[in-house]
Amino acid sequence: MARIRLLIGLVLAGLQAVPFLAAAEEVYSYQDGDGVLHFSNAPSDSRYHKVNRNAGGTLYRKAAPQARARPVPGGPAPVDPAANVKVDKFREHVRAAAQKYRLPENLLLAVMSVESNCDHRALSDKGAMGLMQLMPNTARDMYVNDAWDPAQNIEGGARYLRILANQYGGDPVQVLAAYNAGPDAVRRAGGGVPNIPETREYVRKVVELWKAYESGR
């Protein structure tokens, strides 16, 4: 058990030094008439305003914390990265969301796999819904009208990850910990992974699966 804890600690410590999400030195954003958030480090529209990325700041204050995925009873077996059967059903949606929000495609695939086991019907006991396990408040704040629609759910999850990436300067551990436990829990932990077994395991699983997708396994 001690060896496993040491391994997890080394993985997390190594990742904290390597930013995985593009984080511009200065980030600007605006919300258009359709409720879509736009981000840029070279604003070309007068509606853009600089995003506050100070330690106490937050890009989107109404965003609600996520709950860990617990797929509906009788759901499919864990995702096999080698087969990619379930993942392929949603790959085009994932690719589009990754491009729109400047996120690694394989990161989105990993989050989706760990969150819901790629089951668009997944529902947690806390009410988190769909592929990216969006809480009702988060879905509403991310302009998701139907959380059971795969395309909307994936885009909502990607948008929230982009918001967290901007808030935490692209740090992968903080972003994933906040997605699972909520930004307040990360703040109380001094910016690190909260001492919550569920959250630490969540970060480890997403990172390992992300690496597996990157390597084609």
Structure description:
- This protein has 217 residues and is mainly α.
- The chain has a single domain, classed as Orthogonal Bundle (Lysozyme), CATH 1.10.530.10.
- Helices cover 46% and strands 5% of the residues.
- It contains 9 helices and 3 strands, in the order H-E-E-E-H-H-H-H-H-H-H-H.
- Strands 2-1-3 form a 3-stranded antiparallel sheet, with no helix packed on it.
- Strand 1 and strand 2 form a beta hairpin.
- Helix 3 packs parallel to helix 6 and helix 6 packs across helix 7.
- The protein is globular.
- It starts with a helix and ends with a helix.
- The N terminus is likely disordered.
Question: What is the CATH topology classification name?
Answer: Lysozyme
Domains, number: 1
Spell out the helices and strands N to C: HEEEHHHHHHHH
CATH architecture label: Orthogonal Bundle
Helix content: 40-55%
Counting DSSP E segments of at least 2 residues, the number of strands comes to 3
For the CA atoms, what is the radius of gyration?
17 Å
User: Which stretches are low in confidence, meaning pLDDT under 50 for 5 or more residues running?
Assistant: 1-18, 52-79
Our measurement of the CA-to-CA distance between the termini, rounded to an integer number of angstroms, reads 26 Å
CATH class: Mainly Alpha
Structural class by sheet pairing and helices: mainly alpha
Main-sheet strand order equals 2-1-3
Largest sheet: 3 strands, antiparallel
The shape is globular
> Which whole number gives the mean pLDDT?
75
Number of helices: 9
- Strand coverage percent: under 5%
